[in-house]
Structure to design on (1268 residues):
């Protein structure tokens, strides 16, 4: 603003003056230019005329000089005299380089040259030449300009010696015109030049241009003048050889047909205009300076008071509200300054009010902050004490009293049917002791009661003087006057009351009531938290206890004692009694089985089982018996109970029966030294423990039974296997004898055997062998069952094994017309296992396949898959139904149908095979479609030794 | 404050360009190569330059080389001037002109001598390359001189011609002189000199052979030749004013002062940036005939008034 206004004024002023001056100067310049142009053109034209005159006079002077000599009688003078005159003429006129005297007949009489040798009387006939003809005709003849060696301009001129005389022909070196041309002054930088009729330069101040034979026709002014020699070509702007703009004018010399040009640079010609322009410019600058000065002065007068105002406004703006402007200009500015002053005064006033309001607001903010801090404090306490409600209530009471300017504060909670003291602040301990003893019930007499009854905030303005207030004694004891009660509510129930008292009379404001409600809510939240937390913890503990008992049950399947101890321990911990025991029923007695607790008990003692004891009653009635106070029992009904209770100082009892199949096997008993009811939760829990005890006892019983039975079974099984082994051995020995002798008989060792007998022998032999196979199988099986089969580990080749099996079964297959093939890839690794047993397995499978296949083929395939041999026997036989596939590997199982029965067999082969393969750590499986064939697949580890160890 | 600033600005702009122009520019240098008598050409040239406003060692510097007798020094001198990288070379007389031409095709050469006659100028109006100057038309004047000599001494039968062998100009000179001799029925006796030391012997020969006179090539030492002519009582003709002043009978030649003015004018234009191709070769226009009346009397020659009327200068 400082610069802006000032500048604007000045610019405006200068602008105005400039505009006026510029218009003035422009008009002036225009007219000066026009005037000057006209004047220059006139001057130029005059100069051109003058120049032409001077050039012409140069030539005319030569002519005149020649004329002195060329008298009519001169030709008659002696030759020496004539030579002398010519020499003298040459000396007088340096431009003449050669003079020739022609006689009347046009014959050369004398030639005098400046450079060449003189010639006297050569008599050369030049009568037909233009110089002679021209001079005779006109008296004077001017030849055209010619250039010697294409460079130096020359002109021939001839002057006649009167009518009767001859002619003098002179060669003139036109370079000498330079003396004239260079003398012609045209302004400062102007010049004149002469152009011949062909446009070639004849004379120029720069002689080199002439000598170079410069063609001037290329200049527009020269071309125009040559094109129209007669017309008065107007003087005008043009350019010269150097490309400079010139003002050009010309005049011609008719006698010589020369044009004389005068040129002056346009710039020079227009110098007066430029000077005028400069003067105008100077005037303009002067005008501007004056305008600027005047503008500045005027602007200053405006700006100074404005600046003063600005400075004043700045001071006021920076807070100096008492500052006042003093401007005495007597115009609008002064009025504006006064306005400023009034505004400042108004500001000053409102500022004071504002301060008061800010103070008020600050105080409010302070209070609000305190509340928030207190609330935050309470929340912190809540979060820090999840299990204990007391600290929270304590801090609530403390904060409430502090914030609401109360002298005392106390919180009462509903407990055991009445509102009782829970926490307090600022109350004397003696008074607290009094209050602690109070149990307020909902009603109108006490503040707590009244608040609980109404479920809203209740305020008593002056308790000692309130006729409706029933507990004036308490108020007087505490010296309280104004009381307020705030209900702590949860889901509509008033679970407590917070009370604040003042020892003077002043109602609690609405704002305080709001704060107190918030505190009350927080207290409720804290109580809720604690309750929830406690419930959660108890529930967790119960579950832990139940789980503990179950764990013990599972860990001790054979012994009931640990379980009973666990049950007793859990009952003590969770059922609200310090003493627990288990009593078991034993016929007509009760046996004290387990006990834990501080009260006397005799484990192992018996008491009669009847309804006079609590335990007996529970067992017989098969229901839980709860005795909150032994003293209240009927002695006729509970004689034993009362007697035992007196002996052991028991006041309360709880007995839960341990029930099984409708009868009780005992019960769990809880005892307390003081009277008091057990909660329903405690009762439920005890019943659960009792049930667990039953399960444990039952478990142990069942377990023991199973163990005994399985032991018996095992012994029986061993006996069977032993028997089978023995039997087989005993059977095999005589059978070998039968077969051996039969063979020998058939071979004729005992003489010839009749043909009929031979057939019988063969049948005996065949049946014997079959029986031997059977026995061998049974023996193998029994060995396996008895754990007596030991694998003989050795290295084997699968290929050899397959070859062995195929050669053994080849004839059999051929007999049945089956194709027997194998697919064993080369390079299979050497395996480790019981080669003989594995061969037996493979033989069994191939045998079975041939046996149960009537058409097609049987093929043995071997492969190595994941470190195992996979041996498959594939046939195209009857196949095995899916429901039979599992059974065929069991002992003595054969797919029972007519076709199999025909094939015979013990039904032990596959069973044995399975056992052998399993001993190798492998598996045997079957895949089959009925009618299409079967594939038996044996998978054994290539290196079976480790598996075998594990199998044993 | 702004006002002061403006004034300072105006003052500075008015003063500075001139100061700057003078301070920076190195002095232009003109190489001058003389192929014969240095005077009066050397003095006249410097005077002409001075008339054009050049002040030696202040606005111009001259590198002056002259070869009086040993003409074989000229190529080395020319090379030296080229090595100095002078702005322009002024070559006087044919040996110097040829040496300068051989030394450079870059540095402009302004000659003063017979370059046109010796055929080194291709076009007078538009000379080639870096070469222009002023031609003295000496060979043509030589014919005129023979005629003048015949006028003075009509009985002349044989005329000696002293030629400077190393100077190529001798060829057109001899040709012109012999042409003129034939026209006047005068026998021309050329005597070839290899150096100025042979001058005395040459004069002895002229005397011995009873020749009527002698014509001296301008590149030979003019004053010595004139002095020897006086000493041997030989009517001698040459082309320089100095020759006649020193005792030679007559001299006919171009006005050296005029030529030097033209040469200086060309040097000036070259220094100001003109190209030599734009400067046509000029022909001398002013010629002067100087007659030594004293020598004529000593030789017993009567000079007619008409002859004397021709003379520009008569030495009494």
């Amino acid at each position: 603003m400082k610069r802006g206004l000032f500048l604007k004024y000045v610019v405006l002023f200068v602008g105005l003056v400039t505009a006026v001056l510029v218009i003035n100067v422009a008009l002036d310049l225009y007219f000066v230019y026009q005037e000057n142009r006209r004047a220059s053109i006139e001057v130029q034209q005059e100069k051109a005329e003058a120049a032409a005159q001077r050039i012409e006079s140069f030539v005319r002077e030569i002519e005149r000089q020649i004329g002195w000599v060329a008298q009519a009688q001169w030709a008659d003078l002696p030759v020496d005299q004539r030579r002398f005159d010519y020499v003298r003429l040459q000396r007088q006129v340096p431009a003449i380089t050669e003079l020739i005297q022609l006689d009347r007949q046009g014959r050369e009489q004398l030639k005098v040259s400046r450079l060449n040798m003189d010639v006297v009387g050569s008599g050369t006939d030049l009568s037909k030449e233009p110089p002679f003809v021209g001079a005779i005709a006109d008296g004077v003849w001017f030849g055209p300009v010619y250039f010697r060696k294409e460079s130096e301009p020359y002109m021939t001129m001839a002057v006649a010696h009167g009518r009767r005389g001859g002619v003098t022909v002179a060669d003139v070196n036109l370079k000498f015109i330079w003396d004239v041309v260079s003398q012609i002054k045209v302004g400062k930088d102007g010049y004149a030049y002469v152009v011949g009729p062909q446009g070639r330069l004849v004379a120029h101040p720069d002689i080199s241009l002439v000598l170079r034979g410069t063609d001037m026709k290329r200049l527009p002014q020269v071309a125009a003048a040559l094109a129209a020699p007669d017309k008065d070509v107007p003087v005008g702007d043009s350019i010269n050889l150097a490309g400079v703009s010139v003002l050009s004018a010309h005049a011609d010399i008719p006698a010589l047909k020369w044009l004389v040009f005068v040129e002056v640079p346009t710039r020079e010609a227009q110098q007066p205009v430029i000077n005028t322009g400069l003067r105008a410019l100077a005037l303009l600058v002067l005008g501007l300076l004056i305008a600027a000065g005047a503008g500045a002065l005027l602007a200053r007068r405006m700006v100074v008071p404005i600046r003063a105002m600005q400075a004043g406004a700045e001071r006021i703006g920076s807070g100096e509200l008492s500052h006042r402007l003093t401007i005495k200009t007597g115009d609008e500015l002064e009025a504006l300054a006064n306005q400023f002053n009034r505004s400042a005064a108004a500001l000053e006033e409102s500022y004071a009010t504002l301060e008061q309001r800010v103070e008020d607001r600050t105080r409010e903010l302070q209070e609000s902050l305190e509340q928030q801090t207190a609330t935050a404090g309470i929340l912190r306490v809540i979060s820090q004490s999840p299990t204990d409600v007391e600290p929270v209530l304590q801090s609530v009471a403390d904060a409430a009293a502090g914030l609401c300017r109360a002298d005392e504060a106390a919180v009462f909670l509903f407990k055991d049917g009445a509102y009782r003291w829970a926490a307090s602040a600022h109350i004397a301990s003696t008074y607290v002791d009094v209050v602690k003893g109070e149990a307020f019930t909902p009603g109108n007499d006490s503040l707590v009661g009244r608040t609980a009854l109404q479920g809203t905030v209740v305020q008593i303005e002056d308790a000692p003087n309130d006729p409706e207030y029933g507990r004036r004694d308490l108020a007087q004891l505490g010296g309280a006057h104004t009381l307020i009660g705030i209900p702590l509510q949860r889901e509509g129930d008033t679970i407590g009351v917070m009370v604040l008292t003042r020892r003077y009379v002043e109602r609690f404001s609405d704002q305080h009531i709001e704060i107190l409600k918030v505190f009350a809510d927080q207290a409720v939240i804290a109580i809720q938290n604690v309750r929830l937390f406690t419930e959660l913890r108890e529930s967790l503990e119960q579950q832990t206890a139940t789980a503990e008992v179950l764990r013990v049950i599972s860990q001790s399947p054979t012994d009931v004692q640990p379980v009973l101890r666990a049950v007793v321990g859990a009952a003590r911990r969770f059922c609200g009694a310090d003493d627990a025991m288990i009593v078991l029923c034993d016929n007509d007695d009760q046996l004290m089985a387990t006990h834990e607790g501080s009260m006397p008990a005799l484990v192992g003692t018996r008491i009669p089982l009847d309804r006079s004891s609590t335990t007996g009653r529970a067992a017989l009635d098969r229901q839980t018996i709860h005795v909150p106070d032994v003293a209240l029992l009927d002695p006729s009904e509970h004689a034993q109970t009362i007697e035992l209770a007196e002996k052991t100082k028991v006041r309360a009892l709880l007995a839960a029966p341990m029930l099984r199949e409708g009868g009780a096997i005992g019960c769990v008993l809880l005892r307390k030294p003081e009277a008091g009811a057990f909660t329903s939760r405690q009762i439920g829990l005890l019943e659960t423990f009792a049930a667990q005890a039953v399960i444990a006892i039952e478990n142990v019983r069942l377990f023991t039974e199973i163990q005994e039975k399985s032991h018996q079974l095992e012994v029986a099984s061993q006996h069977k296997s032993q028997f089978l082994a023995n039997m087989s051995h005993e059977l095999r020995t005589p059978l070998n004898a039968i077969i051996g002798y039969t063979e020998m008989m058939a071979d004729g060792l005992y003489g010839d055997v009749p043909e009929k007998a031979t057939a019988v022998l063969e049948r005996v032999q065949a049946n014997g062998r079959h029986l031997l196979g059977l026995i061998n199988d049974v023996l193998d099986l029994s060995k396996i069952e008895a754990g007596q089969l030991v694998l003989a580990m050795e290295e084997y080749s699968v290929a050899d094994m397959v070859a062995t099996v195929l050669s053994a079964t080849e004839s059999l297959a051929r007999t049945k017309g089956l194709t027997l093939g194998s697919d064993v890839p080369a390079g299979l690794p050497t395996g480790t296992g019981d080669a003989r047993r594995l061969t037996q397995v493979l033989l069994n499978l191939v045998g079975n396949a041939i046996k149960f296949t009537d058409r097609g083929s049987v093929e043995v395939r071997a492969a190595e898959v994941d470190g195992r041999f996979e041996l498959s026997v594939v046939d195209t036989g009857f196949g095995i139904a899916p429901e039979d596939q599992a059974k065929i590997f069991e002992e003595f199982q054969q797919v029972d149908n007519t076709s199999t029965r025909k094939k015979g067999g013990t039904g032990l082969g596959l069973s044995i095979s399975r056992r052998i393969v399993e001993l190798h750590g492998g598996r045997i499986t079957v895949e089959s479609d009925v009618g299409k064939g079967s594939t038996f697949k044996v998978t054994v580890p290539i290196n079976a030794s480790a598996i075998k160890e594990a199998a044993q | 404050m702004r006002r002061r600033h403006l004034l300072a600005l105006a003052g500075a702009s008015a003063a500075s360009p001139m100061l700057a122009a003078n301070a920076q520019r190195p002095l232009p240098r003109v190489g001058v190569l003389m192929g014969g008598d240095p005077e009066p050409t050397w003095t006249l040239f410097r005077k002409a330059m001075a008339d054009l406003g050049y002040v030696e060692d202040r606005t111009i510097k001259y590198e002056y080389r002259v070869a009086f007798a040993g003409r074989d020094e000229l190529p080395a001198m020319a090379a030296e001037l080229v090595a100095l990288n002078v702005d322009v070379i002024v070559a006087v007389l044919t040996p110097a002109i040829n040496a300068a031409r051989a030394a450079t095709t870059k540095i402009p050469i302004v000659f003063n001598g017979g370059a046109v006659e010796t055929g080194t100028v291709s076009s007078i109006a538009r000379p080639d390359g870096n070469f222009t100057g002023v031609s003295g038309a000496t060979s043509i004047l030589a014919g005129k001189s023979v005629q003048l000599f015949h006028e003075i001494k009509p009985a002349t039968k044989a005329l000696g011609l002293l030629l400077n062998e190393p100077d190529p100009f001798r060829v057109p000179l001899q040709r012109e002189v012999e042409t003129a001799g034939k026209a006047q029925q005068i026998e021309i006796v050329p005597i070839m000199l290899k150096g100025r030391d042979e001058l005395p012997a040459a004069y002895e020969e002229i005397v011995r052979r009873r020749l009527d006179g002698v014509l001296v090539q301008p590149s030979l030492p003019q004053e010595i030749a004139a002095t020897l002519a006086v000493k041997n009582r030989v009517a001698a003709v040459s082309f320089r004013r100095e020759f006649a002043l020193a005792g030679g009978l007559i001299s006919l030649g171009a006005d050296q002062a005029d030529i030097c003015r033209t040469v200086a004018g060309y040097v000036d234009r070259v220094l100001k940036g003109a190209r030599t191709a734009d400067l046509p070769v000029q022909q001398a226009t002013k010629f002067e005939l100087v007659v030594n009346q004293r020598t004529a009397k000593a030789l017993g020659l009567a000079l007619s008034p008409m002859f004397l009327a021709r003379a520009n200068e008569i030495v009494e």
The interface with chain B takes residues 80, 83-84, 87-88, 91, 94, 113-118, 147, 149-152, 173, 175-176, 207-208, 211-213 of chain A (CB under 8 Å). Confidence is low (pLDDT under 50) at residues 946-952 of chain A. The two ends of chain A are 111 Å apart (CA to CA). The first helix of chain A runs from residue 2 to 69.
